[in-house]
């Protein structure tokens, strides 16, 4: 299996991505499809990141004064570029992250959707009017642009996660500096190049430095984390990364928005439509080769329907087409790299040592693609929720446990330290409502009769506990990117004090 050079060159050319010459310090982007290099990007130093922050601070001083609906117009123009180049950008996502074509395109569609959302929002950055206890007084809230936003992103959503932050940050009046994953470098350059085209159409109302990309590894991310000029640091990645980043931002009293690892569970009740459950579980467990933060990793199934559901799942797994994500009909592309494959194999060995019966999980297509890592998604039947099940292994492993009582299922579901996405398949109204209640799922996302992955941009996205607590995208997530002021106006000739305090001078 080999990525055609011609496809790569045509894709990069359409998107306006230029790779630096060999004399410049660079980072190489490798395709997980065949393990071969796709291109290079220029690498940045910590000192250069400091310069970017200064440029962004100057941009902020000007951009915060541009009326929000005008800021929205820039995002509208960006959405035009994304619509026009959806195929090419989606293909680049597939080339760099190994997603199947439909998922690569879906990621770009998500960018378009959040731009549309942000455009509407640019006329709705509303504050409250609040009843004052003092006569002749009025209280209100105003929302102001926050400042420079730093975005650190993960490899598995190389463009969508950035756009959730970027589109909202821009309409809220903030410039953005983006440190993409070192595994998906070119997709970031492409997003920047397309935004450059939108800027040219927008005219000179936009200051320089609204969007910048800092390429590099952890050190480049750390430079953003520690810079007091970065007002909000939005970081998406593993819980280990969040554990390192969160306290450092807090130590300088910066604001952070953390979107970290998940360990998402699905409960299948005895009343469930098993056909629907099977389809929902398979998409969420094997889609993106198990490399979504919302991937279903834990299946908690009622003992009475366990065998019937497992039979369907095994049947579906046996017919999955695994291979080149650019080929039509493929459902499961490669793992991102050798480290991901090793982590998967180690987790499966650990599962066996903890009593698992494992189906699948082997490497495939090794002869055709010796430098790439294609695997059969695995189903691991567990004796209970053992240690390996409590951890997120970023690979297609579905751990299966059974339960007898609904309360037992909820307890098992909520027992893990992550809290991103969750679902129940049931036709019992009491169970469904209970799952969504205060005593139900403890996750940021709780679904009924659909899987754990594939969220829409209209809702706030994020999770609780070790998932970090951040919320991005829809609902009122825009408030992360603004600062709130409470204003009191006295239009009387008296000066009454709150709480009836007397202070006569
Ligand atoms: P990762 O944690 O290895 O890297 C994520 C990003 O953080 C990269 O850009 C990396 O360079 C940077 N980074 C790592 N350590 C850093 C540090 N100490 N300081 C500053 N930057 C640092 O994650 P990954 O392997 O790219 O992505 C997979 C993980 O991301 C999974 O755990 C997945 O669940 C999670 N994820 C979460 C969400 C969500 O919305 N909750 C979305 C996508 C991915």
TrEMBL record:
User: Oxidoreductase: present as a keyword of the record?
Assistant: yes
* UniProt-listed InterPro entries: Ald_DH/histidinol_DH (IPR016161), Ald_DH_C (IPR016163), Ald_DH_N (IPR016162), Aldehyde_DH_dom (IPR015590), ALDH7A1-like (IPR044638)
What molecular function terms (GO) are annotated for this protein?
aldehyde dehydrogenase (NAD+) activity
**UniProt xrefs under Pfam families:** Aldedh (PF00171)
Which keywords describe this protein according to UniProt? Answer: NAD, Oxidoreductase
Domain Aldehyde dehydrogenase, residue spans: 28-484
Answer yes or no on keyword Oxidoreductase. yes
**Annotated family:** Belongs to the aldehyde dehydrogenase family.
Subunit structure, briefly? Homotetramer.
Q: What is this protein called?
A: Aldehyde dehydrogenase family protein
Q: Which species expresses this protein natively? A: Candidimonas nitroreducens
């Amino acid at each position: 299996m080999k990525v055609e050079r011609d496809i790569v060159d045509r894709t990069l050319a359409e998107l306006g991505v230029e790779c630096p010459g060999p004399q410049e310090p660079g980072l190489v982007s490798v395709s997980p499809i065949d393990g071969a290099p796709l291109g290079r990007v220029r690498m940045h130093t910590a000192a250069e990141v400091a310069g970017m922050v200064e440029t962004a601070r100057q941009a902020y001083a000007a951009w915060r004064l541009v009326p929000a609906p005008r800021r929205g117009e820039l995002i509208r123009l960006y959405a035009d570029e994304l619509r026009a180049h959806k195929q090419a950008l989606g293909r680049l996502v597939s080339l760099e992250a190994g997603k199947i074509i439909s998922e690569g395109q879906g990621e770009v569609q998500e960018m378009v959707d959040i731009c549309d959302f942000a455009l509407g929002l640019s006329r709705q950055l509303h504050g409250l009017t609040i009843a004052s206890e003092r006569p002749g007084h009025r209280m209100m809230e105003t929302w102001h642009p926050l400042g420079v936003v730093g975005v650190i992103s993960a490899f598995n959503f190389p463009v969508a996660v950035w756009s959730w932050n970027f589109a909202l940050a821009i309409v809220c009046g903030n410039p953005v500096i983006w440190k993409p994953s070192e595994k998906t470098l070119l997709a970031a350059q492409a997003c920047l190049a397309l935004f450059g085209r939108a800027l040219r159409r927008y005219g000179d109302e936009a200051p320089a430095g609204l969007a910048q990309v800092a390429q590099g590894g952890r050190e480049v991310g750390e430079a953003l984390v520690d810079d007091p000029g970065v007002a909000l640091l939005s970081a998406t990645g593993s819980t280990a990364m969040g554990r390192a980043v969160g306290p450092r931002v807090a130590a300088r009293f910066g604001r952070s928005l953390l979107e970290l690892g998940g360990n998402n569970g699905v409960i299948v009740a005895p009343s469930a439509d098993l056909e629907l459950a099977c389809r929902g579980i398979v998409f969420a467990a094997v889609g993106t080769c198990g490399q979504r933060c919302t991937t279903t990793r834990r299946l908690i199934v009622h003992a009475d329907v366990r065998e019937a559901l497992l039979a369907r799942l095994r049947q579906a797994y046996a017919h999955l087409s695994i291979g080149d994500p650019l080929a039509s009909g493929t459902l499961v592309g490669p793992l991102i790299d050798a480290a991901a494959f090793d982590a998967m194999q180690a987790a499966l060995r650990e599962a066996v040592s903890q009593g698992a019966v494992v189906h699948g999980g082997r490497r495939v297509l090794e002869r055709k693609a010796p430098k790439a890592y294609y695997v059969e998604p695995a189903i691991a039947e567990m004796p209970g929720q053992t240690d390996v099940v409590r951890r997120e292994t970023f690979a297609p492993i579905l751990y299966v446990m059974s339960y007898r009582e609904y309360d037992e299922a909820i307890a098992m579901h909520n027992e893990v330290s992550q809290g991103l996405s969750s679902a129940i398949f049931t036709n019992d109204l009491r169970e469904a409502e209970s799952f969504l209640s205060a005593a139900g799922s403890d996750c940021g996302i709780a679904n009924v009769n659909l899987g754990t992955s594939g969220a829409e941009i209209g809702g706030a996205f994020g999770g609780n506990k070790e998932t970090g607590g951040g919320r991005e995208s829809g609902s009122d997530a825009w408030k992360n990117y603004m600062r709130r002021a409470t204003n009191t106006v006295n239009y009387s000739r008296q000066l009454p004090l709150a709480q009836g305090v007397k202070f006569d001078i």
